[in-house]
Amino acid sequence: MKKIIKNIILSAAFILLLFGAGQTAQAADLYSGTCSNGIKWSINTDGRLLISGSGDMMDYSDDNYAPWYQHRDSITQITVLTGIKSIGTGAFYNCQKATAITIGSTVTSIDSYAFKDCTGLNYVVFPSALNEIGDYAFYGCTNLAAISVPSSVTKIGEGAFASCSGAVSATVTASITKLPDYIFNNCAYLSTVTLPASITEIGTAAFDSCKKLSNVTIPNGVKILNASAFADCEALKQIVIPDSVTTIGDGAFGLCSGLTSISIPSSVENIGQSAFAYCTALEKITFSSGLKSLGMGTFMGCTALKSLEFPDTVADTGTMLCYGCTELEEVVFLGKNISIGDYSLYACSKIARIYGYSNTAAQQLAADYNCTFYAYNQAENYSLELANEQYCYDGNEKSPDVTVKFCGSTLSRGTDYTVSYFNNINAGTASVTVTGLGRYTFSLKKTYTITQKNIAEVKCSLD
Prior knowledge:
With 463 residues, this protein is mostly beta strands. The protein contains 2 helices and 36 strands. The longest helix has 18 residues, at 2-19.
């Protein structure tokens, strides 16, 4: 036995001497072949799948898998050499053992489903020539930690990085105008996103179910937030909607259970149904004049909301507007011709006050839900008090401070009303008129007295 071992060692030494001890034998090919378009492929003993040739790779599907598909469990690395122009549809689908890919500098297109369900893939570096990433190209690459799309890319397909549940950051500098539908859908651990300034639209469900997303800036220039754009982003506490946005789609922020406040700019004209439904931590939402309509169930299930105020530009609200807002106490409708949908305050157990104008849908809503209605256009809801109602004439204007209240709440001079004084110098009856501003449509008048100075109090002196 010892003699056999000795002979093996001597043989190995002879081989090293013959071929050079500094050289290492190249890994042999386990499998190889040539595609019908002349593209060559091989899988070596190190698990590297090598794609070589010139031109476009072929497209593959469930009915026509790539020739290396049957050996996918042997593939740990994928290298697409320079010369290849495009990576075909489904080319490396379900190569779950592959951890890294190298893409040649000549590749300009990665087609749909190319790397779908490559669950072991750790990272990918895109070549500078790349200009297109197809639909669901990297769908389900659950081990991909970071995503960076270069500025050379001008087209990205829907769901390109959907269900990349291990990704924690994404940077898109691509020259695109629409962030595609479903692009990061269900990227459960994605927490930080950087978006290009060129986009004007965020696609349907682009960030739906990105439950860890806490930091995202919507670029100024975005006009449309499509349906479910940020739905179920549980970690999102605040988000700034730029004043370029005109439309917030159905369910755009639905189920964002961490969202506490949001401000809607005057540029927004339409808010879709269930746009903020079940945002259970939402305490404050501010609207600006310009909003025209709200869809069905816009605030359904927002159990932390206590008050809402809709601007006078709102003409229509869908049904079930605030359905199940159990902490909601008051709602203000500033529109005089507003149409309010059925069941708008259903299951709002604490609703007590509705503000608006008499003979409008707001007054009827108050009656339907047995709430106290406060009308901005009813004089009896206002009171006017003067700091002083009697003065003595001294040749100067007498202008007493006023206190104006609406339903017991003190209003602000200059903001809520103006004050005018009349006949307030000479002895006699002076008056003050208070006129409402904005929502406060009233005019109140009150008189006060300026008396003659007692002649007995006048002192004379002779020189």
